[in-house]
């Protein structure tokens, strides 16, 4: 319990950082987005609280997606992807559970619902889960995913992207997001990426490439920091 | 510590949320770990229902996360001044994924009320086509007085309040369907915190 500092304040998300819904060009949002506006609720005890030590419920430690068996790396560009989970004051969030999933180098998910005929890669895992350390750090060894066409949509290709799900110290800090790669020509054509109106907010969804000299041989390095809602953490309780 | 920073934007989980992320027992709120004994401090209940989109069609591979107080109305979290008295064997959190019919199921203990709050379970729904996760709250039948006084239920127009009250499923459990989009008289009310 002592490691869990509690954010004392939850500000509304800044305008332009939340995706527009329903989302132009994304038909599914027109059948799934509630038609009624959400009801503003002053956060109470239950909303501010959240499960403690969730890494016991959700076992963590799957950080290697790209070489699940030694000496048999996945196809594609190997990358090391790391960053920090932070609150809105820039304080590290320790013991957050970070889940990640993505397509393989051919743009195919190892998921029963992905019925596209692109090849599966037996040496690529496609999902991982880790727990942040005392400095809020997480890291995964994976590959740059391939682009894929959205099933059922006219001509819409998702750019290479990595899905993130982060469970922090408070229900209000729960985040599900996607990370993109800078400079990909499909980014400005993606209805999901472009659903976020604010340019600076979209830029924050881009991984930052590290100079290869800082990373070492064998793979490329990217940094992606994840900022959760909440600020003014109270001192940890003993 | 840097200066103030801005939270990342949210996005849909898409259609491919990995099945290995939802293991058997993850929908059991009474266990703090897969191999931990379930808490017995309270009455065991089952919550079940469907996640539906416009037209009452099922949402497949949607993720529902439940969060609630223990049977005495306490959270084992510093946000609760009484957290040290909270049930140490009760997690209060669970995750379920919907099947082809949109069905989800949780196993838990009937939560206690606290302060002016009636017994309730907070539910977060994430799905393909849902760019912002949605939050709702399940209340229980049989607590009409507490429900009538609950300040969160009271934020709704009276006609929409019954939409947040689960129904008895006839086998000791409760049923709560979540309609993401539909006529205002049927659509599940959602909250923004
Ligand atoms: Fe995807």
TrEMBL record, chain A:
Which keywords are on file for this protein? Dioxygenase, Oxidoreductase
Q: What is a GO molecular function of this protein? A: ferric iron binding
The keyword Repressor is annotated on this UniProt entry: no
Which domain of life does this protein belong to?
Answer: Bacteria
Q: Where is the Intradiol ring-cleavage dioxygenases domain?
A: 81-109
Entry-linked Gene3D superfamilies: Aromatic compound dioxygenase
Q: Which InterPro entries match?
A: Intradiol_dOase_C (IPR000627), Intradiol_dOase_core (IPR015889), Intradiol_RC_Dioxygenase (IPR050770)
Sequence similarity: Belongs to the intradiol ring-cleavage dioxygenase family.
The identity of this protein, by name, is Protocatechuate 3,4-dioxygenase beta subunit
Question: Which organism is this protein's natural source?
Answer: Belnapia rosea
UniProtKB/TrEMBL annotation, chain B:
Intradiol ring-cleavage dioxygenases domain: from which residue to which, for each copy? 15-118
Alphabetical keyword list? Dioxygenase, Oxidoreductase
* InterPro entries referenced in this protein's UniProt entry, alphabetically: Intradiol_dOase_C, Intradiol_dOase_core, Intradiol_RC_Dioxygenase, Protocat_dOase_a
Q: Which domain of life is it from?
A: Bacteria
Q: Which GO terms describe its molecular function?
A: ferric iron binding; protocatechuate 3,4-dioxygenase activity
Keyword hit for Magnesium: no
Quote the Pfam families the UniProt record gives.
Dioxygenase_C
Describe the family membership recorded for this protein in Swiss-Prot or TrEMBL.
Belongs to the intradiol ring-cleavage dioxygenase family.
Instruction: Please state what the protein is called.
Output: Protocatechuate 3,4-dioxygenase alpha subunit
């Amino acid at each position: 319990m002592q490691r869990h500092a509690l954010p004392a304040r939850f500000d509304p998300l800044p305008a332009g950082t939340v995706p527009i819904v329903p989302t132009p060009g994304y038909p599914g949002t027109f059948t799934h987005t509630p038609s009624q506006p959400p009801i503003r609720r002053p956060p109470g005890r239950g909303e501010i609280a959240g499960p403690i030590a969730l890494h016991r419920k959700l076992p963590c430690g799957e950080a290697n997606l790209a070489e699940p068996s030694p000496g048999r790396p996945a196809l594609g560009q190997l990358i090391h992807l790391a960053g920090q989970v932070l609150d809105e004051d820039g304080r590290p969030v320790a013991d957050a559970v970070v889940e990640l999933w993505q397509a393989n180098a051919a743009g195919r998910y190892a998921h029963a619902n992905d019925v596209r005929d692109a090849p599966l890669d037996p040496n690529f895992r496609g999902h991982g889960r880790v727990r942040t350390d005392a400095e809020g750090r997480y890291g995964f060894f994976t590959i740059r995913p391939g682009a894929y066409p959205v099933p059922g949509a006219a001509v819409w290709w998702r750019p290479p992207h990595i899905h993130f799900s982060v469970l922090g110290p408070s229900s209000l800090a729960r985040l599900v997001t996607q990370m993109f790669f800078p400079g990909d020509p499909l980014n400005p054509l993606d209805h999901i990426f472009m659903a976020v109106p604010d340019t600076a907010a979209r830029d924050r969804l881009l991984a930052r490439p590290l100079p290869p000299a800082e990373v070492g041989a064998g793979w490329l390095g990217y940094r992606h920091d994840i900022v959760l809602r909440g600020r003014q953490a109270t001192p940890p309780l003993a | 510590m840097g200066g103030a920073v801005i939270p990342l934007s949210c996005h849909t989980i898409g259609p491919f949320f990995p099945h290995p992320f939802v293991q058997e027992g993850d929908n059991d709120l009474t266990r703090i770990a897969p191999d931990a004994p379930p808490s017995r401090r309270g009455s065991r209940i089952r919550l079940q229902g469907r996640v539906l989109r416009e037209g009452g069609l099922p949402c497949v591979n949607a993720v529902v996360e439940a969060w609630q107080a223990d049977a005495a109305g306490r959270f084992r979290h510093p946000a609760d001044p009484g957290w040290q008295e909270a049930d140490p064997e009760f997690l209060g959190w669970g995750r379920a994924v919907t099947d082809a019919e949109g069905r989800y199921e949780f196993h838990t203990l009937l939560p206690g009320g606290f302060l002016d709050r009636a017994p309730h379970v907070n539910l977060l729904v994430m799905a393909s086509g849902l760019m912002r996760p949605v939050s709702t709250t399940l209340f229980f039948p049989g607590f009409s007085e507490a429900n009538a006084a609950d300040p969160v239920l009271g934020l709704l127009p009276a006609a929409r309040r019954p939409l947040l009250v689960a129904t008895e499923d006839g086998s000791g459990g409760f049923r709560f369907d979540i309609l993401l989009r539909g006529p205002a008289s049927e659509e599940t009310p959602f909250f923004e915190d």
